[in-house]
Specification:
The chain is an alpha+beta fold and about 375 residues long. Among the domains are: about 55 residues; about 80 residues, Gyrase A, domain 2 (2-Layer Sandwich), CATH 3.30.1360; about 50 residues, DNA polymerase, domain 1. Helix content is about 45%, strand content about 15%. The strands form 4 sheets. Strands 10-11-3-12 form a 4-stranded antiparallel β-sheet. α1 crosses α3 and α12 runs antiparallel to α13. The longest helix is centred in the first third of the chain and has 18 residues. The chain is flat and about 115 Å long.
Length: about 375
């Protein structure tokens, strides 16, 4: 404790204004290497220089730097899809296609998926996790049948329920029967044997009825298909194909802090715009990390801020950030040039040339860097 006070005293004497996390790192490093006051002073001088160099200068083109920092490694990404632990049915889009999905703010993403974590009391209880997995995952009639026959002579569909499969899926027999009776008016039930009749006795109706019986959903949450249970360290985790964050978070035993989805619009709808901003940062950074590419988080944060600044998730394209720019020339330089110029001329819009793109187009210095400062000479009297 005394050691920490001494180190903090030296830092205060130097008059450096570092973030708390950096101060803690300096304290730890000083203790670990047993630095003297003189050595600590020298270290602080070097850190201060590096810290000042790392700061963004006034007039820096941060948007352009962010675009280059994300765009350059993005072009080197391999286009591939990742499979969970050998389960070919459950895959997640990664690499360049995923990055495009994020910055385009697609409402319908190609492979929505959830990672469902559990509270401390339940995360090691395999039986409880399996019950929840069967509640969440889609289970249809064909998953619990022992026998399935289309009887063209009697004009009916006869099926036999499999008790072992029902028990394995942790389902209740009575609940299944209630679902069947609700979905089909003409059904006869004799223990595990069920007989279904079509509304009109013809082959077409019988085949349609057979498909309807086979595909009847017995259990599961809307928009979620398959589920995969995996063990991560000491705890069980469920990964899903499809996503329904709102419904899953209401379930018993779910860890509401760590459970997440890769669908950014769903996060915005359920948890709000701040959570959506964090999701954009997390998804973009994990996509880069997975490909072994390093991009400073501050560039990604700037992109996420631009996408969510208005209180809703917008794409970086002609329907979002670029399409809403005040400058006519900036909008026209991105996409649909003729359309933008025609509309602007009909409306009589004026371009005040206050941005970067429009000044580059007409060959003027941009209002950033050296161009952000105007020097006026004061004549001698």
């Amino acid at each position: 404790m005394q050691d920490t006070k001494r180190i903090m005293g030296v830092i205060e004497k130097k008059g450096v204004d570092f973030p708390k996390s950096l101060v803690n790192e300096i304290v730890d490093a000083t203790k670990r290497h047993d630095l003297t006051g003189k050595e600590l002073g020298k270290l602080l001088d070097e850190i201060k220089k590096a810290y000042e160099r790392a700061k963004v200068e006034d007039g820096e083109a941060v948007g352009t730097v962010a675009a280059q920092s994300v765009g350059e490694p993005g072009t080197q990404m391999t286009m591939r899809t990742f499979h969970y632990a050998g389960v070919a049915e459950l895959n997640v889009t990664l690499g360049l296609p995923r990055l495009i999905e994020i910055v385009d703010a697609r409402k319908k993403i190609s492979t929505p998926t959830m990672a469902i974590y559990f509270q401390e009391d339940y995360r090691t209880d395999e039986e409880f996790i399996r019950k929840i997995a069967n509640k969440i995952g889609k289970i249809t009639m064909k998953d619990i049948l022992k026998d399935f026959n289309i009887n063209y002579a009697e004009m009916n569909v006869v099926v036999e329920l499999d008790d072992d499969k029902i028990n394995d899926k942790r389902l209740e027999f009575d609940d299944i029967i209630k679902k069947i009776e609700k979905a089909f008016k003409r059904v006869q039930i004799n223990k595990n044997i069920l007989s279904f009749e079509p509304p009109t006795p013809n082959i077409r109706e019988l085949r349609l009825l057979a498909d309807k019986v086979r595909d009847l959903q017995i259990s599961g949450v809307k928009n979620i298909g398959k589920v995969v249970i995996s063990k991560e360290g000491e705890e069980w985790v469920i990964h899903t194909e499809g996503s329904n964050l709102g419904a899953v978070l209401k379930m018993k035993g779910i860890d509401r802090i760590r459970t997440t989805t890769n669908d950014i619009y769903e996060i915005e709808r359920v948890l709000g715009i701040e959570a959506a901003r964090n999701a954009i940062i997390k998804e973009a950074q994990s996509t880069m990390d997975e490909q072994g590419l390093t991009v400073d988080v501050r560039h990604i944060m700037l992109v996420a801020d631009m996408m969510t600044a208005d209180g809703s998730v917008k794409s970086i394209g002609r329907h979002g950030v670029s399409g809403e720019k005040a400058s006519v020339l900036a909008r026209a330089s991105f996409e649909e040039t003729g359309k933008h110029l025609l509309r602007a001329s009909i409306r009589g819009e004026i371009d005040h040339l206050s941005g970067i793109i429009e000044n580059i187009i007409i060959g003027q210095p941009i209002p950033l860097g050296t161009g952000s400062v105007g020097v006026i000479m004061k004549p001698r009297k």
